[in-house]
Amino acid sequence: MTSSRTTAVLRFALAAVAALSIGFADAAAAEGSTGRPQPLSHDVDLHWAPSTRILTGTESIEFRNIGPGALPVIWLRLWPNDSIRGQADGCRRPRLRIRALEGAIVARYAVACSAVALELSRPLATGETATVKLGLTARAPRSESLFGRSAGVDLFGRVVPVMAVRDSHGWHLDPDTAVGDPAFSLAAAWRATIRMPAWLDAASTGAESSSALEGGERVVRASTPRARDFGFAIGRLRHRSATVDGVRVRVLFSSRTSAARARQALGHARDAVRAYSRWYGAYGSPELDLVITGLGESSQEVPEIVFTDPDRATVAHEVAHQWFYAIVGNDQFRSPWLDESFASWSEAQLVPGHYECDRADPLGRYRGWLGRSLAFFEDHPEAYVDVVYERGACALSVLARALGRRRFLALLATEVSRHRYGVIDTAGFLDLVKGADPAVAARWARLTGLSD
Predict the structure, then answer these.
(1) What is the pLDDT along the chain (452 residues), one digit of tens a residue?
(2) CB atoms within 10 A of CB 200
């Protein structure tokens, strides 16, 4: 006799096997529509059981069809389901499972089950809105990663499903990569309720509105009007906080981090928020959380929450991503330089001398590589950090010198203002530079190879 759990596993596996032959183009063609979903809001209610390391809950996603044609299907990204080449296939050992509760049915999986298509209860016409409700179950690993555990804190970065982007290129169902971060999503409102044992606490994307004991459990509620993604951390958390330009900056840490280190991290974060707000424009949200980890070079941001080592350079870099990706979005798979180079340049302003820079030839033998995709760097992993972080920051330093620092910061402030909670591409940035100074734009594009 087959148990209900075994049946569910078999159904998941069969759907996954059927999906293995569905690629990026096939998935888009299978719909035969030109609808485009725009997420409006996410409501999540999550429960963490540390004894089993299982996260359960529900998520409701409201969205609108902004495309010219009907929208019968949406795709979601399930990033915990590993799809990195040479590693475990997310279809055989998925860390995140979903079930459709309302508004849609699960149609098929793709990209090693890190993407799932939901067939809507009825196709959406242009301008119409709909809501789908999901049940989710995730088993958290103990490894040190964005989804894992570090410095005594459980981390849940990009665990909650988000809607895949569909634009003029089609559906963005890019694979995970061993270098970089391929995540790409659109901003929407988030409302979250996180439940856990009473002796734990949580920090998350969004401003915390309450943290209270209810029915013997700790219940934390938070919300934000605009974020591209959602992340949170749970542990026996200590807090340090300060207010900077109207933003409550919180540092959260476990007993494995000293209070002195936490105070230093808070100082670094306060300096970064103050500088970036002055240079680029307002942060725009009432709260920013930094969770102290031991992730080292794997430290990473999620909108409005950062999982980071406490040193000045790492904090400066990850906080800069709140402007360059969280506020000004980009397709990180196709153009990783648009957030990493800008965060690295910002970091270098607060930690001078951190990156070497040949201003006469910033890209050197890598000229023309700056605008390359993660697919390219997956085959050239040794060059990724050198090109996208270090030489990219150097290239921006060259541009800053050519324009003058004041005009360059004004250019970046214009970028943030025009593309706040939107998306920019390389051509869009080059257009901004051209608008500031056409001659400088032409020389700089040739020097970096971005015009090739």
Answers:
(1) 433 333 333 343 434 433 433 344 444 444 557 899 999 999 999 999 999 999 999 999 999 999 999 999 999 999 999 766 655 567 888 999 999 999 999 999 999 899 999 999 999 999 999 999 999 999 999 999 999 999 999 999 999 999 999 999 999 999 999 999 999 999 999 999 999 999 999 999 999 999 999 999 999 999 999 999 999 999 999 999 999 999 999 999 999 999 999 999 999 999 999 999 999 999 999 999 999 999 999 999 999 999 999 999 999 999 999 999 999 999 999 999 999 999 999 999 999 987 899 999 999 999 999 999 999 999 999 999 999 999 999 999 999 999 999 999 999 999 999 999 999 999 999 999 999 999 999 999 999 999 86
(2) 19
Q: Which of 156, 317, 143 is nearest to 229 (CA)?
A: 156
With left for phi above 0 and alpha for psi between -120 and 50, is residue 375 left, alpha or beta?
Answer: alpha
Q: What's the residue count for the chain?
A: 452
Cα dist. 102→74, 106, 131 in Å? 14, 11, 8
Q: Is 142 left (phi over 0), alpha (psi -120 to 50) or beta?
A: alpha
Type of residue numbered 372: R
Domains of the chain, start order:
1-40+60-136+160-184 (no CATH), 187-323 (3.30.2010.30), 341-448 (no CATH)
CB 262 within 8 A of CB 253: yes
Distance of CA 201 to CAs 196, 218, 240, 243, Å?
A: 8, 7, 14, 21
- The alpha carbon of 176 is separated from its chain's Cα centroid by a whole number of angstroms, namely 13
Q: How far apart are CA 395 and CA 429, in angstroms?
A: 14
Contact residues for 57 (Cβ-Cβ < 8 A; gap 6+): 44, 45, 46, 47, 135, 136
Question: Residue 8: which residues within 8 A CB-CB, separation 6 or more?
Answer: none
Specify the pTM.
0.92
Evaluated on CA atoms 200, 222, 421, 281, the torsion sign reads negative
Query: 84: which residues sit within 8 A by CB, 6+ positions away?
Result: 175, 176, 177, 178
Cα(74)–Cα(117) distance, rounded to whole angstroms?
A: 6
Query: Beta partners for 41?
Result: 62, 189
DSSP state of 423: B
